[in-house]
Amino acid sequence: MMNSRPIRDNLLSDLGAEGHLLAAKCEKCGQVYYPPTVEFCMQCLHEELAEIQLSGEGSIHSYARSEVDAEFIKAPYVCGVIDMAEGVKVFAPMHPEHMNHPVSINMPVKVIVGEVWRSDNESVVGYHFIPA
Ligand SMILES: [Zn+2]
Q1: What value does the CA radius of gyration of the chain take, rounded to a whole number of Å?
Q2: What is the pLDDT of residue 119?
Q3: Which residues lie closer than 8 Å to 71 by C-beta, 6 or more apart?
Q4: What is the DSSP-derived secondary structure letter of residue 12?
Q5: Does the pTM exceed 0.85?
Q6: Cα(54) to centroid of ligand 1, in Å?
Q7: Domain that residue 92 falls in
Q8: Which of 93, 6, 108, 113 has its CA nearest to residue 53?
Q9: Domain count, the chain
């Protein structure tokens, strides 16, 4: 049986297709942080932060295409920095099924949770961006 594990703890609300990226939101000033690893708000120093789910809506801030294999990704592939609707940036690979789709700055995209690689008996769940 295939086990699933998150690529990193405390980053995803769920490992299924309904999963979202988690972020932290300051309960005083509303500043959002991703990843949600801050212990206090760097804007107002408030220490109460709420866990929120990012909507997944965003647009491409910048991107790069690689012609060289990464450890778990076969080239060619595209990675991008995504401006999320909540005001944070997320670094994500483009979903391999959309690799032939043209990519451009400010292009609307969606960040989705899903398997990023698989080993012998383990499915590693992370996230990709896809054209919106
Ligand atoms: Zn704050």
Answers
A1: 16
A2: 83
A3: none
A4: B
A5: yes
A6: 18
A7: 3-131
A8: 113
A9: 1
